[in-house]
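hey so i finally got around to running the thing on that chain from the lab meeting. sorry it took forever, my laptop kept dying and i had to restart like 3 times. anyway pasting the input first so we r on the same page abt which one it is
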Amino acid sequence: MKRLILLSLVLPLAVIVFAQGTTTSKHKASVVKKAVYKPAIHDLGSTAFAQEPNSTVVNPNTSKDEAPVGITNYDLQTNACLSNRLTLFSDGTLAAVFTFGLQETVAMTDRGTGYNYFDGTSWGPAPTVRIEVDRTGWPNHAAFGENGEIIAAHFSEADTAGIIFHKRDNKGTGDWEQIIILPSPDPQYPDALWPRVVTSGPDHGVIHAIYTTYPVANGGGVWQGMDPALLYSRSSDGGTSWDPQSIILDGMTADEYSEIGGDSYAFAEPVGETLAFVVCDTWMTDWFVMKSEDNGDSWDKILIWENPYPFFEWEVTLTTDTLFAPDGSADVAIDQNGMVHSVAGLCGVAHTEVGTSYSYWPYAEGIAYWNEDMGTFEHENGNPHDALRMWENGGEWSANLVEDVSLVGWGQDLDGDDQFVYNNDELYTYRTIGANTMPSITVGPYNQIVVAWAGVNELRFVTDSYNYRSIWMRESHDNGATWSPHFDATADLVHLFDECIYPVVGSNIDGNIHLMYSFDGDIGLALDNDHAYHNNFITYHSELYTSIEEMQAAVPALEISQNYPNPANGSTEVAVNLKQAGNLSLEVTNMAGQVVYTVNKGYAHAGLNKISVNVSDLTPGVYFYTVNAGKETATRKMMVE
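ok and heres what got predicted. didnt touch it at all, straight out
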């Protein structure tokens, strides 16, 4: 792809990029295009690469806030969701992983985990070899043990199968030890794919993994009525044994879905014994969260958006009208109160005739935000097609998704014409549909939330071709109540002609926001024959956040969560975050203001406290609960059924 914009045009554009505004864009609701569904890629084999990789290795251009992490010619980092690839340790060091491959053969036989480490001062040199002996892909990283780390990836060769784990006792140094291979439960098709892995416990000693069975499209089979199924495993002894091992959790079985596809899920960084992962797909599943508050012993399913076609079949199922849905990319995080937050890219699609082609609306785009206080996305007309509707006829925003509340990202009007317009009405989709897609979310200890995503930049394009994507970010300093303006983390001139995608925010926030993403000069994937193979640069971006002292000062003395479950039946629980220790109590009142239930917890420590409320004797209806902590009070509404 040639860069044909003259220098005289570049400089005025650069000024506008830095002077970006946050004007809500108006969409061309009538624009519709066709796409073909692409199943998730697993192993491409020795004959899958149609072009030789580019042997030229060049140095990436980075801004003052960036540092190079790695280089890869293999350019598919995920089919949809990304998570658990940038770990922030408690001492301020970082570890990053990505799918790596540089070998100059069509087989890309050196593909595996690229790893780099930030020692608090600088990143190490870009890796030149994978950490594994065998060809692998799709790595995840987590802290492990007192000072160690663990990596999980899936195998890529026909004579090996399963999820492979490597560990070392001291992060950033020493040899990697292969500790376990975790196969799928089907002896006929033992391969397991697309892992997501986290660790929990005081010393990060408990391993939690989700991954899929081997799908028919990759040469596998149906497992317990699903193709593929999403499995969960847990190990409390470093991978020596697993209990449970390769189970399908309730709520994700063949009774609910025909499949949960590869890379359609992401795992949150655990908080104490609270775990959560999100599942999200346009065609095959709901957008939902699985949450455990007992370190994986039991799980609750929380529905965010209900898909009207949970048993979708390309040769059978037809949509009755436009479906506003997640575009397949999503992420999830847990705050210090144990509340779950999730984001997803959005799209508008329709499947009106049999076959794997479908229609999509490129101007229906955005990043939706949800937390447990919000409940399930629904439309007042009762039509699930409209629950995530982003615009009405004429291109105006819909009130169903509230700007800066449930809608936190959208295409930015950078040239001041009150429109968000592509260069030539074309959009490259990266196996998803949205113009703004690939969202990643992280939370901090003082009610901070950071969301990053890859979004089309209307001012960055090459003549007669697609617009480039930037990495956009937004921050919330009050747990999602309000949001900062859109910020282009790649606004530096060095990225004016770069396609910036696959953002991953770090597992936590300290004095900085930690971000990793991929960039190169060509739009699309060499893997899909969009262009020749060449270097893709994995880079780290550091963005200064509000100081820790300012964060602490901004924390309210008393925060309470929405009771869960809500509506309640029998018992429900309220999480209370105290800035200072003190006496803690709760009272429940009915609509008439009469106190119908009280709990006195006595003296409570600072931080997270939980209050159990017994509602079994209450008449179904609306109630209010008030938490008292010293001189501070806070009230919320709850439903009893």
